[in-house]
Design brief:
heterodimer; A: about 210 residues; Rossmann fold; 2 domains; two-stranded antiparallel ribbon; 7 strands; globular; B: alpha/beta; five-stranded mixed beta sheet; 5 helices
């Protein structure tokens, strides 16, 4: 027994030495655990900070759920756009109507770029369908507006009994931040096309 | 007088008469097309009720309401019989104490103004709240086939925008067409 005790002590001392060497260093290679701020690769405003507790359990931690990314701010410098919401193939009369609208606005010095709605359809339809102005004010319209200075949206409803329904809702999103300027449920009569320039003006010119 | 002579005089008379008829036609037809015809049997005015919802204290709001009201009375091809009632009368008919957010109200909340004696004979109800100081304009027009009891709401809101005369003209232009929705003289 007297011979074994010193051996145990030496093994313990060796283990301590090896452990110290293995865990040594200044920790500079482990930035995520150093308590330093970590830069958000998506350019978020609030940098995330990882903190290591002094007596942390060495077992691997579950991957933390990332915080929701802030809305990507796209500078609204692109040309003003016209987007059409429809679920049917446009009739010739409806195409003519759109061309007449664009022409009337061009004569009023407003040029709109006709753009496919893409993945914004549901968002814009939801906005046009919501009748409560207070609820509409809560909607984030930035992604729907995209990079256009101003966005004119027309909903052209599908014909009923072969009769064209024409425009049944329309609106304008413009400004910085993107906000509703005009919202309507009803027809946009041809007589009002040129006058619409008053609501597209500031946000549509280069 | 020979028969030949008589025939030639008759021919000249016919020619003169034809020329006169042609001249009258040329003068009367364009006039008939340009000048509005008096009321025909069955024809009637568009009966519109206009309600201004601001409190009337702001001169800019008054100008805005005037522009929209003017567009309502001018635009229809026929005659518009445009009547107005004060905001308080509308509140009484609706049984409401406030019209805040009226542009988003469901149709049922307007039923007091869309049916009954007060709505009889009306083709359209136009409600306008123009607030240039708040950069805001709200408009609701009820019109449709079968007049007010079956009319659907047409709604327009302008937000975060200076209410210039041009914006008021746009609202008036839209409202003047909306008021004729489903109208048959």
């Amino acid at each position: 027994m007297n011979h074994r005790a010193p051996r145990c002590v030496s093994v313990a001392v060796l283990s301590l030495l090896v452990g110290t060497l293995a865990c040594g260093g200044d920790g500079s290679e482990e930035a995520p655990n150093s308590g330093e701020p970590v830069e958000d690769p998506y350019g978020g405003e609030e940098p995330t900070t990882a903190v290591t507790l002094p007596f942390e359990d060495p077992t691997p931690m579950p991957t933390p759920v990332p915080a929701p990314l802030p809305e990507q701010v796209v500078p609204a410098t692109g040309p003003a756009q016209l987007v059409l919401l429809h679920t049917h193939e446009l009739l010739r009369s409806e195409e003519r109507y759109v061309e007449q609208l664009l022409s009337a606005l061009r004569r009023a010095s407003i040029t709109l770029e006709r753009t496919p709605v893409g993945d914004r359809a549901a968002m814009l339809e939801g906005w046009l369908t919501e009748t409560d102005p207070a609820r509409r004010a809560q909607l984030a319209l930035g992604p729907a507006r995209g990079s256009a200075r101003a966005l004119l949206v027309l909903r052209i409803s599908a014909p009923v009994d072969r009769r064209a329904q024409g425009v049944t809702a329309f609106g304008v999103i413009a400004g910085e931040p993107a906000r509703e300027r005009l919202w309507a449920q009803g027809d946009l009569p041809a007589d009002a096309h040129a006058a619409l320039a008053a609501l597209l003006g500031e946000g549509s010119q280069p | 007088m020979s028969c030949g002579h008589l025939a030639s005089r008759a021919r000249i008379l016919v020619l003169r008469l034809s020329a006169l008829v042609a001249l009258l036609g040329a003068l009367v037809l364009p006039t008939a097309l340009l000048v509005p015809m008096p009321a025909r049997a069955g024809a009637r005015d568009l009966e519109v009720l206009f309600v201004r919802l601001d409190d009337g204290s702001d001169a800019a709001a008054t100008a805005c309401a005037g522009a929209v009201r003017g567009a309502l009375s001018r635009a229809f091809g026929g005659e518009v019989h445009l009547m107005s009632i004060p905001r308080d009368v509308l509140l009484t008919r609706l049984g409401a104490s406030s019209l805040d957010g009226f542009v988003g109200w469901p149709r049922e909340r307007f039923s007091g103004a869309l049916s009954g004696r007060s709505a009889a004979g009306l083709d359209a109800l136009v409600m306008l709240d123009c607030q240039p100081a708040l950069q805001r304009l709200d408009l609701v027009v009820f019109a449709g086939t079968g007049a007010l009891p079956s009319a659907e709401a047409q709604r327009l809101s302008v937000r975060h925008t200076e209410i210039t005369p041009a914006v008021a003209r746009f609202a008036g232009s839209v409202a003047s067409m909306w008021q004729t929705e489903g109208f048959s003289p």
